[in-house]
């Protein structure tokens, strides 16, 4: 599914482009939408994505892939065995002459198609096979699951290393209680565009913000506003932009997570909260100044 398009995916795609050029062919990436777990009702409530379909498409456009094919995933498609899918779709419809697969890739209703299966089908149907091994950074294995686990712990730094870019949220600025303005820290309240997008752990983060065609540094709070009388039971996402004044209500906003500063905590009152936010700002500005 290429969720996150992390460094392991990118090594596979580099191999794909190389294979296509060697054969004077075209590189084709195939993925599914919606996610098979949603269609198959396989615990869809716990499913969270690193990238929405729009974000994934944008990331692919930055690479040297010739074609991105998004196949609607249906129950009929799910019923195909690996051999049927390979014969009908990959060879019959797309015209595949070579396939590049990851080290743990399986598909089909029979959950087969490990490397020997691919090689056997290749000899029968006339296509070559290249397998790409696992990719690691230090002791971290690049996988979508590993990155989700890191983000759920608030470890956005290691997540970015495996992704090869900072994790980001895309959403729209919505109305809030404007309490931040009373302590000189106005925030933009963000409604994420994809309800299945993974939100990192509760806490305060140094971030980069893109809005109205410009870039800003900032700090973001994810949590429940425990200090305020308007504390909520639903997790909120608020970002304070550095060196900005203006109205961005209803604008699209993209936030990149750079560092996690601290946990969300409850303070004795707004005065104590303001003092901590001042310290958070100093830390965030220093971190962002050293970030490349």
From TrEMBL:
Location of the Riboflavin kinase domain: 162-289
Looking up Pfam families in the UniProt record yields: FAD_syn, Flavokinase
GO BP annotations, alphabetical order: FAD biosynthetic process; FMN biosynthetic process; riboflavin biosynthetic process
Q: Which Gene3D superfamilies match?
A: HUPs (3.40.50.620), Riboflavin kinase-like (2.40.30.30)
Summarize the protein's role.
Catalyzes the phosphorylation of riboflavin to FMN followed by the adenylation of FMN to FAD.
UniProt similarity note: Belongs to the ribF family.
**What are the entry keywords?**
ATP-binding, FAD, Flavoprotein, FMN, Kinase, Multifunctional enzyme, Nucleotide-binding, Nucleotidyltransferase, Transferase
Q: Which PANTHER family match?
A: RIBOFLAVIN KINASE (PTHR22749:SF6), RIBOFLAVIN KINASE/FMN ADENYLYLTRANSFERASE (PTHR22749)
| Catalytic activity annotation | riboflavin + ATP = FMN + ADP + H(+); FMN + ATP + H(+) = FAD + diphosphate
- InterPro entries in the cross-refs: FAD_synthase, Riboflavin_kinase, Riboflavin_kinase_bac, Riboflavin_kinase_bac/euk, Riboflavin_kinase_dom_sf, Rossmann-like_a/b/a_fold
What Gene Ontology molecular function terms does this protein carry?
A: ATP binding; FMN adenylyltransferase activity; riboflavin kinase activity
The keyword Kinase is assigned to this record:
yes
Q: Please give the pathway this protein is involved in.
A: Cofactor biosynthesis; FAD biosynthesis; FAD from FMN: step 1/1; Cofactor biosynthesis; FMN biosynthesis; FMN from riboflavin (ATP route): step 1/1
State the organism of origin.
Breznakibacter xylanolyticus
UniProt entry tagged with the keyword Nucleotidyltransferase: yes
Protein name per Swiss-Prot or TrEMBL: Riboflavin biosynthesis protein
Q: What is its EC number?
A: 2.7.1.26, 2.7.7.2
């Amino acid at each position: 599914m290429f969720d996150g398009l992390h460094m392991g995916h990118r090594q596979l795609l580099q191999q794909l482009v190389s294979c296509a050029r060697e054969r004077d062919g075209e590189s084709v990436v195939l993925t599914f939408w919606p996610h098979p777990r949603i269609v198959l009702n396989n615990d869809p409530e716990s499913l969270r994505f690193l990238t929405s379909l729009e974000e994934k498409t944008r990331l692919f456009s930055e690479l040297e892939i010739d074609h991105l094919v998004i196949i609607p995933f249906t129950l009929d498609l799910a019923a195909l065995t690996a051999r049927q899918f390979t014969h009908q779709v990959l060879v019959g419809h797309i015209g595949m002459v070579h396939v590049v697969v990851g080290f743990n890739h399986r598909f089909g209703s029979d959950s087969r198609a490990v490397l020997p299966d691919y090689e056997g089908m290749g000899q029968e149907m006339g296509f070559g096979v290249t397998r790409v091994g696992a990719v690691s950074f230090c002791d971290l294995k690049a996988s979508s699951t590993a990155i989700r686990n890191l983000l759920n712990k608030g470890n956005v730094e290691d997540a970015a290393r495996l992704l090869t870019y900072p994790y980001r949220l895309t959403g729209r600025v919505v109305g809030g209680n404007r309490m931040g303005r009373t302590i000189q820290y106005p925030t933009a309240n963000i409604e994420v565009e994809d309800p299945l997008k993974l939100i990192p752990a509760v806490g305060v983060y140094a971030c980069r913000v893109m809005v109205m065609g410009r870039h800003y540094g900032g700090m973001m709070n994810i949590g429940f506003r425990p200090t305020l009388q308007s504390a909520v039971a639903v997790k909120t996402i608020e970002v304070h932009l550095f060196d900005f004044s203006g109205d961005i209500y209803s604008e699209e906003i993209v936030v990149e997570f750079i560092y996690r500063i601290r946990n969300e905590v409850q303070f004795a009152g707004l005065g104590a909260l303001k003092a901590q936010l001042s310290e958070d700002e100093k830390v965030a500005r220093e971190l962002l100044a050293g970030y490349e």
